[in-house]
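Input/output pair, single chain:
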Amino acid sequence: MGCGSCGTGKNGAPGGCQSHGNCASGGCNRMNVHDWLANLPFTDTESSCKIVEVSFNNGSRKDYFKNTTLHFFEKGQMIAVEGVNGFDVGMVNLTGELVRLQLKKNNLDEKSADFKKILRKATEQDIEKMLETKKKEAAMLIRSRAIARQLKLELKMAEVEIQADGKKATYFYIADDRVDFRELIKIYAGEFKVKVEMRQIGARQEAGKVGGIGSCGRELCCSTWLTDFKSVNTNAARYQNLSINQTKLSGQCGRLKCCLNFELDTYLDALQFFPNDADTLEVARGRAFLIKKDIFRNIMWYTLQDSSKHYPLSIETVKRIKAQNKQGIRPEELETVEVVTGKPKEVEPEYADLVGQISLKSLEKTTRKRRDKERSQQNNPRQQGPTNRKQGGEPQQKGPQKPQQEGQQGSGPKQINTDRNRQGHFKNQQQRPGKNRRPDHS
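Output:
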């Protein structure tokens, strides 16, 4: 899983960031190791470690080779090493004193004659040959799976790795039981024209070769730095007060997550100060049952039979109640402690009027008033009659002017009565149009 800017060039070196394999993110090479002793000066060069750690297939496989040449190899360089009846090309992963520590960790003798030798720095022809053989791995993996399925073998072919010169192929497979693959090796050797080597791996090693992103959001530990896999059981989850949920506790390999063992020692050391026989407590209200243990606050949480409330108790309180129960004494209440959280309270941000004096509420209020006014005029067309008639040029009568003026000078009720009389006057005027007409003097 390399970064996007670290495309491999023609000579095998990263062409994007020009880091020559020393990528700070570790994405150029899986199982990448930082040589923190590389810049330290050593006066005695003869006593330095002559063994070099070389990684193959982007770090999925590592091996140790003896440097019998006079060249000094740096991390990230492509070198040619001894292979099976030929040569192989790998990348220098670690040199110097850290290799000596790795050999001690893996119980390997530095002076052993079993180490293969480093031949030379990889030339352009070596790298081109390696790239040609790497292109055949995908097609060979698909064909090998089809052959294994035809033979009805209970195995899963995970990966095929071809040597740089194309004379040997290593098949990594997964199987629950022993598999007789003698016939399979004959078919592979006859069809692919290579020397075949079968290696059985587990589900964790397969996940490391495939790679991926874990539930924590980071790259899988087995594909970045974890090399030795320890057994993980459900007791590790119980000690850490985790719910036994198979889907949450399992990784991408289908096994329990390796990270369950990372903090197990811390929990075991903290649980030594907690009482072991305090699963139940007897109080006056009934029996209290232990729910969980909080090792960070040294608190034990209990609940009663007739209540769903949780009661936090300190370790000293639990020990005192347990001693009273042995004497036949039941305390009246559970002396709880106050649980203080260090998380600061979130302050809600205050409203800031960034628009200014104009607000959307005032605009909506004006629009609503205008809409209500138009709607009321449509529902009551009679209120528009007198106004329209005045604008139409009809003669105004002297009779209704006097009560109209009186209504204007009066209060609210008089104004209402005057309006009603005025409307009635116009109604009579419409019914008797000829009575109030002026005489025609012509």
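DSSP finds 13 helices and twelve strands in the chain. Residues 230-272 form one domain.
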